[in-house]
Structure formats: structure tokens, C-alpha cells
């Protein structure tokens, strides 16, 4: 299964990062979103990111321009019809993803692999919206995509070995280390990470310590690069809540119940870095 052209649907933080690492690896990339403004913003952030990598000597000047030259942007989904692999990175909302995958399935070429960057929606359920569940897989990148080494590769119930092998190879060519896991709520990354973040939020609610103190404990005491509340702001509190809800619904145990403070902050529009305020302020 030869992969040379990769489509990315959704040009947000994750989608633009995926498009960037794919283009850096030499793949032709078609990046699609719904508005020209989103695509321009994505290209801006890819340029900035490549600029940083160039500054640090991690890529050479030629690679900077060549990477940008391999990224084509579009508003039309049909422009992804000749891609060998399409990675979806749109809003974390199941009905929207299902609708997109139905459409992608009908226009992508028969051999193409469809992948989702979902952080917690079951891959098997998304795959069932298509007529190619054996060529459907989860490719869960970590934020910030250009810097983080992991790609969590999630096999759906019907994902074939051939599809898995092809996607592991793509992830490696992108300079990432893929880790294969099965399709259970939250996979591994978020099943382990989010309950820790949720517990840190519960500590704030109960007045155990300030957000700064909690983050300091985890940074200095456990050598985490970011404290859990800084990380929650970075991921987005709405995304954190959505993941906790998936864990709670899917696994049932009360230990996955979202903290009431998390819920209240999301209701108040305090979503973290992207809204300018979460546990911290970003002016
Ligand atoms: N591209 C290129 N360079 C980037 C970048 C990007 N996208 N983002 C940041 N950088 C640069 C910064 O600009 C900075 O450059 P300078 O040194 O010139 O200022 C450099 O990388 C290092 O950044 P920082 O000094 O700010 O901070 P750092 O050394 O702590 O590294 C980090 C940053 C890699 C993000 C680190 O803090 C870290 O590993 N944090 C944890 C991230 C994490 O846990 N991610 C997973 C989130 S969960 C998820 O994604 C899954 C999900 O489903 C929710």
C-alpha cells in the first residue's frame, strides 16, 4: 500500500500540525477547511512553527520552503479524492464526524485509508459509518504536533493488519513513534491523562491548593513539563470535559465523573488558552 498524498480535514491546531509534519516528511498534502480565514491562519501557524524549527537548526532553509510548497489548501472536500490517506481533525463532535466520514467514504478512491485524530470517540463507531471499516483507523497525534513524539494508533474492531502497517509506516516517516492500542474509551493516553487533570481541578474546587501550587507540585515533584492545570488550559477545557464525559459514559465508574468546577468553567466560556482565560489568563 503506497502512500504519497495525504489529505487533512480540519485546519485547526491539530490539523495544521498534522499537515505540517506530513509535508515535512515529503508527502504531498491537501489541507481542507470550511473558510478561507481558517486556512490562512493554519498556513500562518505552519510558517511560524517552521521558522522556529529553522532557528533551532532542526530543519534547513531549503526544507522550510519545500515543506510549504507541498501543502495545497482547499475549501472543497472533493479535492481529497486522489489522496491515499485522509486524516480527519475536525471538531470533537460525533454526529459531525460521522457525516464527514460518510461523505469522505463516497468520494475517496477505493483503496484510500481513512483515519481519525479523535481524542476519544470510538474508532469502531466512526468506521461503521463507512463501507471500508477495514481501511479505517485512529491516528491520535499529541499537541503540539510538530514537537510531540507520540502517535497513538488505534485499531478499530475491523481494522486490517495491512492498514495498521501502512499507518505505522507513515507515522515513522513523519519522525514520530507510533504506539498501537485497542479501541476502548479514551484509548490509553486520555484514559490515563484526563483523570489526573480532573483530579487537579477537583483540588482547586475543594480549596486544597491554588492552581499555581498544584501545577508546581506536579512540575517539580513529578518532573511533568507542564502542570495539569496549565495543560488543561492548553488542551482546552471544553475538550477536557468532552473526554471526561466519554470516559464516564463508556466506563461507568464514578471515578470518571467530570469535576463540577470543570463543567462550570466551560459553561462560563472559560475554555483556557483559546478563549484567553481558564485557570490562568492569556492576554
Ligand atoms: N512548532 C515549533 N516550535 C514550537 C511549537 C510548534 N508548534 N510550539 C512551541 N514551540 C517552541 C516554542 O516556541 C519554544 O521555542 P523557544 O525555546 O525559542 O521559545 C520551544 O518550542 C520550547 O517551548 P517552551 O520553551 O515554551 O516550553 P517547553 O520546553 O516546556 O516545551 C512543550 C514545550 C513541548 C509543549 C512541553 O511543555 C510539553 O511537553 N508539554 C506537555 C505537552 C503535552 O502533554 N501534550 C499532550 C497534550 S494531550 C493531547 O494532545 C491529546 C489529547 O487528546 C487531549
UniProtKB/TrEMBL annotation:
> What family does this chain come from, according to its entry?
Belongs to the 3-hydroxyacyl-CoA dehydrogenase family.
Source organism superkingdom? Bacteria
User: Which organism is this protein's natural source?
Assistant: Meiothermus luteus
Q: Where is the 3-hydroxyacyl-CoA dehydrogenase C-terminal domain?
A: 186-282
Position of the signal peptide = none
Report residues binding NAD(+). 10-15, 33, 92, 97, 119, 143, 274
One MF term in the entry's GO annotations: NAD+ binding
InterPro entries reported in the protein's UniProt record: 3-OHacyl-CoA_DH, 3-OHacyl-CoA_DH_CS, 3-OHacyl-CoA_DH_NAD-bd, 3HC_DH_C, 6-PGluconate_DH-like_C_sf, 6PGD_dom2, NAD(P)-bd_dom_sf
Start and end of every 3-hydroxyacyl-CoA dehydrogenase NAD binding domain?
5-183
Task: Report the EC code(s) recorded for this entry.
Answer: 1.1.1.157
Q: Name one GO biological process term.
A: fatty acid beta-oxidation
Question: Cross-referenced PANTHER family, in alphabetical order?
Answer: 3-HYDROXYACYL-COA DEHYDROGENASE FAMILY PROTEIN, 3-HYDROXYBUTYRYL-COA DEHYDROGENASE
Q: Does the keyword Repeat apply?
A: no
In terms of Gene3D superfamilies, this protein maps to: N-(1-d-carboxylethyl)-l-norvaline Dehydrogenase, domain 2, NAD(P)-binding Rossmann-like Domain
Q: Which UniProt keywords apply?
A: NAD, Oxidoreductase
Please give one Pfam family short name.
Answer: 3HCDH_N
Important for catalytic activity, annotated site positions: 140
UniProt name for this protein: Putative 3-hydroxybutyryl-CoA dehydrogenase
Amino acid at each position: 500500500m503506497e502512500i504519497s498524498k495525504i489529505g487533512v480535514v480540519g485546519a485547526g491546531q491539530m490539523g495544521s500540525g498534522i499537515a505540517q509534519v506530513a509535508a515535512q516528511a515529503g508527502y504531498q498534502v491537501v489541507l481542507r477547511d470550511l473558510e478561507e480565514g481558517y486556512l490562512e491562519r493554519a498556513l500562518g501557524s505552519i510558517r511560524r512553527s517552521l521558522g522556529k524549527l529553522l532557528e533551532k537548526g532542526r530543519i534547513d532553509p531549503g526544507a522550510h520552503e519545500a515543506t510549504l510548497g507541498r501543502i495545497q489548501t482547499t475549501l472543497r472536500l472533493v479535492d481529497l479524492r486522489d489522496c491515499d490517506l485522509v486524516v480527519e481533525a475536525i471538531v470533537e463532535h460525533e454526529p459531525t464526524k460521522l457525516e464527514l466520514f460518510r461523505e469522505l467514504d463516497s468520494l475517496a478512491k477505493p483503496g484510500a485509508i481513512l483515519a481519525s485524530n479523535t481524542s476519544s470517540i470510538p474508532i469502531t463507531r466512526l468506521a461503521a459509518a463507512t463501507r471500508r471499516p477495514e481501511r479505517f483507523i485512529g491516528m491520535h497525534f499529541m499537541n503540539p504536533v510538530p514537537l510531540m513524539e507520540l502517535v497513538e494508533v488505534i485499531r478499530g474492531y475491523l481494522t486490517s493488519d495491512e492498514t495498521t502497517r501502512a499507518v505505522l509506516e507513515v507515522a515513522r516517516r513523519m519522525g514520530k513513534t507510533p504506539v498501537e492500542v485497542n479501541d476502548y474509551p479514551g484509548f490509553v493516553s486520555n484514559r490515563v491523562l484526563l483523570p489526573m487533570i480532573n483530579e487537579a481541578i477537583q483540588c482547586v474546587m475543594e480549596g486544597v491548593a491554588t492552581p499555581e501550587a498544584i501545577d508546581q507540585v506536579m512540575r517539580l515533584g513529578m518532573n511533568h513539563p507542564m502542570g495539569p492545570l496549565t495543560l488543561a488550559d492548553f488542551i482546552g477545557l471544553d475538550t477536557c470535559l468532552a473526554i471526561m464525559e466519554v470516559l464516564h459514559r463508556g466506563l461507568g465508574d464514578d471515578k470518571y465523573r467530570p469535576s463540577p468546577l470543570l463543567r462550570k468553567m466551560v459553561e462560563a466560556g472559560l475554555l483556557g488558552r483559546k478563549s484567553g482565560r481558564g485557570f490562568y489568563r492569556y492576554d
